[in-house]
């Protein structure tokens, strides 16, 4: 990819981000349409959760394997395959006329999403080896991954109200087809290191089974026995990787405190944030009476804040102060925003009770995501960049599933059988407090584990971030 011209590389980045945006949007665009889907297809209350869970299990379970396959047989090949599967599965989701068909199509969609998204960050750091350009490219990618979630809420509301829930899936088909055509033209063919360098079939079975079972346990089963089996399978995978002559995952990638620490911080941060999106939607609709479009619009300050910081300032700040020193105040900002949300009243006003929290969350997200991605990819060799990218996405998905399960359980236990607005707000407030605790824990891990990097001097070019090597 390094033979690409400067202009073609930035066009290729747009293609990669378009593929990622489809995946990110799909994770939140469905939430707003769930009540309509339930009424139209006759889902039971418990069955409706599988519209989300089927996707999460396939997506979260295959990310690590997909990232490594990208290193072995070529990241471009895996990206194109994933994009094709995701687009076709989106068509099947939109055509679904029964709960069973939609759930099956959502599982296949999760497979495609895992294949395409797992290798994108690895392709970006390979295309942009220069620290300055890499910082800018990661800023664009971070904007897409973080702001896409709130954009999905707005788009889901608009499509559901203006057309029908089927279009939240149909919209992926022309976008996916166009992205595929441009990807074939703009992404240069690359050779992987070969399956012989890491075709660890037992390891692949162990890690995929462990992650799928773990995500299933978190999002639906809540079973100690299944959770224990998942941990045993994961321990077996680690043992296998430590002893195999050609492991699927080189454990040395985790010896860097910044790489390992960044993934732990990200998991805790996403656990606090993603569940909040879900619960804040419920607060706006059930307590304040917002419709789907107004609910999505309420999250625009987060998207705008993330966009301004990710695209305009994050690379310069990472260059000047180092990603760790940018990350820590960003996490503090997010914690403050969540604590403000924990105090929302029954008769809340958007400008006074919600907007300040939204701005703090947007500022924190806009600074935290690029810094975390820089840290998480900092010690990955080119032949392991797909694996490191898959690991970043895996911790995101596991953190999101874990956070949603924890926060929804906290809210439900506090509310109990009561249906009054006051009881609902009490439950949401308790969940927001727990979310703040999760992000605060991420801040503590960042302080203790992450190491500062050398930063540019005052007279150095601000757009040239120093990539962490610790």
From TrEMBL:
<dbReference type="GO" id="GO:0022857">
    <property type="term" value="F:transmembrane transporter activity"/>
</dbReference>
<keyword id="KW-1133">Transmembrane helix</keyword>
<feature type="transmembrane region" description="Helical">
    <location>
        <begin position="296"/>
        <end position="314"/>
    </location>
</feature>
<dbReference type="InterPro" id="IPR004638">
    <property type="entry name" value="EmrB-like"/>
</dbReference>
<feature type="domain" description="Major facilitator superfamily (MFS) profile">
    <location>
        <begin position="12"/>
        <end position="454"/>
    </location>
</feature>
<feature type="transmembrane region" description="Helical">
    <location>
        <begin position="428"/>
        <end position="450"/>
    </location>
</feature>
<feature type="transmembrane region" description="Helical">
    <location>
        <begin position="12"/>
        <end position="34"/>
    </location>
</feature>
<dbReference type="InterPro" id="IPR011701">
    <property type="entry name" value="MFS"/>
</dbReference>
<feature type="transmembrane region" description="Helical">
    <location>
        <begin position="103"/>
        <end position="125"/>
    </location>
</feature>
<dbReference type="GO" id="GO:0005886">
    <property type="term" value="C:plasma membrane"/>
</dbReference>
<dbReference type="InterPro" id="IPR020846">
    <property type="entry name" value="MFS_dom"/>
</dbReference>
<protein>
    <submittedName>
        <fullName>MFS transporter</fullName>
    </submittedName>
</protein>
<feature type="transmembrane region" description="Helical">
    <location>
        <begin position="199"/>
        <end position="218"/>
    </location>
</feature>
<feature type="transmembrane region" description="Helical">
    <location>
        <begin position="137"/>
        <end position="159"/>
    </location>
</feature>
<keyword id="KW-0472">Membrane</keyword>
<feature type="transmembrane region" description="Helical">
    <location>
        <begin position="326"/>
        <end position="342"/>
    </location>
</feature>
<keyword id="KW-0813">Transport</keyword>
<feature type="transmembrane region" description="Helical">
    <location>
        <begin position="387"/>
        <end position="408"/>
    </location>
</feature>
<feature type="transmembrane region" description="Helical">
    <location>
        <begin position="46"/>
        <end position="66"/>
    </location>
</feature>
<feature type="transmembrane region" description="Helical">
    <location>
        <begin position="264"/>
        <end position="284"/>
    </location>
</feature>
<keyword id="KW-0812">Transmembrane</keyword>
<keyword id="KW-1003">Cell membrane</keyword>
<feature type="transmembrane region" description="Helical">
    <location>
        <begin position="354"/>
        <end position="375"/>
    </location>
</feature>
<feature type="transmembrane region" description="Helical">
    <location>
        <begin position="224"/>
        <end position="243"/>
    </location>
</feature>
<feature type="transmembrane region" description="Helical">
    <location>
        <begin position="165"/>
        <end position="187"/>
    </location>
</feature>
<dbReference type="InterPro" id="IPR036259">
    <property type="entry name" value="MFS_trans_sf"/>
</dbReference>
<dbReference type="Pfam" id="PF07690">
    <property type="entry name" value="MFS_1"/>
</dbReference>
<feature type="transmembrane region" description="Helical">
    <location>
        <begin position="78"/>
        <end position="97"/>
    </location>
</feature>
